[in-house]
Design a protein that fits this description.
Strand content: 25-35%
Oligomer: single chain
Strand order of the largest sheet: 1-2-3-4-5-6
Number of strands: 6
CATH class: Mainly Beta
Distance between the termini: 63 Å
Shape: globular
CATH topology: PH-domain like
Length: 139
């Protein structure tokens, strides 16, 4: 009986840890556009991006250089190359937790629209459009 209880506790704990990890970021489809040298923005590139809070980025990196009060969009170009964009126009994560909630994400998009701005560590300005149904509305 004790072995069964311990096994159930261990499985429950592993599921809890795994689900907590999964809630730390949200993967969604988005259009990303960056500001080129001539100050014009590129065409939108549509891909899956990760939305993650600054506190989670700090927890998972050794540099501790991300703002705890900001959310970030990670655009992966390859397995080893990504742009980490600090969102300047919106916050998706919960105020009390560092988790990105799908409900807060959808609610925020209804209030603030689909097109958001951000900047990466190199100072490059980005536009991120989360309107995947009406892509033509992204300018």
């Amino acid at each position: 009986m004790k072995k069964r209880y311990c096994l159930c506790f261990l499985i429950g704990f592993l599921l809890f840890v795994n689900s907590t990890h999964l809630l730390a970021q949200l993967t969604v489809e988005a259009g990303v556009s960056y500001q080129m040298e001539d100050d014009e923005f590129s065409d939108y590139y549509w891909r899956e991006v990760d939305i993650v809070s600054g506190s989670i980025l700090n927890r998972n990196s050794i540099l501790n250089e991300y703002s705890f009060s900001s959310d970030y969009v990670i655009v992966w170009f390859s397995q080893n190359e990504a742009a980490v964009i600090e969102l300047t126009s919106v916050r998706f994560s919960s105020i009390t937790r560092s988790e990105i909630s799908k409900d807060i994400f959808n609610f925020t998009l209804r209030l603030k629209g689909d097109d958001h701005k951000g900047v990466d560590k190199n100072g490059t300005n980005w536009k991120i459009c989360f309107n995947t149904l009406l892509k033509s509305f992204c300018d």
